Structures are given as C-alpha cells and as structure tokens.
Amino acid sequence: MARCKTDCVEKPIARGFEILGGFVGRHPWWFLILPMFISAGLGGGFYFLADREANGIEEMFTPMNGPAKEERQVVKEYFPQNDGDFSRLRLYTEGTFASLIIVKPGANILTITAFTEILEMDSNVKSMTIGALAFEDLCVKKGGVCVSNSIIDIIKTNTTTIDYPYHDKIFIASEIGGVKLKSGLTEIDSAEAIRLFYFLKEDNQTINTMWLQKFIETASKMTKEGMTISYFTSISRDDEFEKSSDSIIPLFSLTYALAINFSIISCLRLDCVRNKVWVATFGVLSSGMAVLSSFGLLLYCGMPFAMTVATAPFLILGIGVDDMFIMISCWQQTQVHDNVEDRMAATYKDAAVSITITTLTDALAFYIGPYPVV
C-alpha cells in the first residue's frame, strides 16, 4: 500500500514561510523600522483610553445577551421608569443613587438632638453642586419636587409616634433600622440607625458620576460625636473593583521585569558567536510593540477598555517570548557558514509552522474564554 502523505498542509505553509524568511533576510531594515512606525501610529489610540474605560462590573462579568438582561428589557418596555414621577418600586436597575447611613450604637436616634444633626448632614449633601448644576437639577422628582426621604418628612410633621414598618401607608423599614417596638404595638419605641437615599436622573451618567464622587468625598469627612456615619453609592462597587485592579499593577510590573530579565539572561552565552542577548531583547520589544499596536487599534475602533484585560500584556509577553525561544533554537540549528538570507529562510521554515499552530490555538482559547456560558 502506498504511503499516506500527511504533510499536505504543513509542506506548503513551510514553503511559504521559507520564502518570507528569505525576503526578511534580504531586507532586514524594512522589518526593523517599518514595524516601529506602525506601532507608534497605532499606539496613538491610547489617547482615547480615558474615554474608553469600562469598569462596570455588570458589563465585564455578565453575558451580553443573557436571560436576565432580556427579562430586564421586557420590564423596561412595559413598566418604564419616569424620572418626573419617580417610584423606587418601578426601578428595573439598581438606579443611580447615594445612600447616607447614620448609626447611633446602643442609643435612640429618634431624638430632637440627633435629628438636628441628621438634617444638617442632609442639607450639606443637597447643597453640593457640579458646576452650575445643583442637586435639584439632577434629582428624580415626584410632583415637580425632588423625591425626599420619608423618615425626614415624618419627623418634620412633629408627629409624636411612628409606626413600623408602615407609617400612614408609607413603607419606612428601608430607612430606619435597629428598631425596637413598644410591647404589643406597631409603634416604634427606639431605633439606632437612619438611612437616607438620594436618587439621580439617569439621563447624564457623566454628571451623575461626578456628583456621586463628590458625595463620597463629602460623606467621608462627616463626623458627629456619638454617631457612626457610613455611605454607599451605585458606583461604589465599580470604584472598589477599579482600586483593587490598581493595587495589583505594581505586582504585575514586578513580574514583567522578572520575565523580561529572565528571557534576556537565559539567552546570554560566553561565546560571542552564539550569544543572543540582543536577539532576546528585540524579541521582548516586539511583544511590547504587539501590545501597543493591538490595544491602540482597538481603542481607535471605539472598543471599550475593560480593567480585566490589564493582565493581557503579561499573557502576550509569555506567548511572544515562547515564540522567540523557538526562533532562536531554529536559528542555532542552521549552518553557521551560510549567508543570512539562507539561515533566515531555514529558520522560518522550521519555526513558523509551530508558531502558527500555537498562535491559532491561543487565539481560539482567548476567544472562547471571555464569554460566560449561561
């Protein structure tokens, strides 16, 4: 039986790369200078990095067409939210809000003295402005006025009793905590915590984010004797995630430096002919240029930059360095006395097929990985 040929794909690919290697050997300066200019041009896309950053946890960790988002769209279509007639019950998202939590541990917060200080804090929050925009310009409204906190409205009526969890058919359990009721009654005897909400319209997220960040700065400086003041906003989780990502950047920088130094030093030889330090240096540089070019191109195209891809340069460096070692190994297998063109052709012929296969499998793995299975 005739021998079965299994190189019908490998052979033409190897031949093609052999021709390419010879061309590179004849015109080395083209492949040194031209990539630098291309990388520099594409790297200009990092100018748009600040505008393209996408740090939303939902955007990064949930599938684009997941059932939950489809169901939310149904709710949005049939039960739309009206910022001019706001109701928390009709929210189909968490909303854009800030929350101030005042706790008086072990003591009753439902006193005139305590509420005088709470009203002062509430006034400080509502007096914050972003440029010419005041809180009244950003808040959701009901009946033409900003939606207020029910517990504050109740206190301002000078009522002597507060029922729990409903007071005059208004649900207040989300605004008052640590409650103790009078024996056998729904009337509140004492409470330890008050939570105030400040909801914003969702028509301008940029301004909203600026107001929420200013709220965080203001709330973090609030201090009242005998009270513990906490705060939370709709952007708090995203901010904490971003800070967590920023905190590990120095560690990644250290690993980059270690990987680069190891790659270069491992190619060091005492024999000047077999020494490949400069080859390793340019191999690492080419990986960096690949990161610069690819990320810059995607930013030019308007692709959002998620913090989760901040580790990608380390992966790309690992793949690039691995391919560099294959190229160096194949180069050292060539005949020393041959000219550069023939040695480059032989190197590309032997190494390029292996590199192509590993690159395709890596690309396939990266393509599959970011998409959660629902």
From TrEMBL:
Record-annotated membrane-spanning stretches: 29-50, 97-119, 248-270, 277-299, 305-331, 351-369
Localization in the cell: Membrane
Start and end residues of each SSD domain: 248-374
Entry keywords, A to Z: Glycoprotein, Membrane, Transmembrane, Transmembrane helix
Protein name, as recorded: SSD domain-containing protein
Pfam families reported in the protein's UniProt record: Patched (PF02460)
Entry keyword Zinc: no
The UniProt record lists the keyword Transmembrane: yes
Sequence similarity: Belongs to the patched family.
Membrane topology: Multi-pass membrane protein
Cellular component GO terms, alphabetical: membrane
Signal peptide range in chain numbering: none
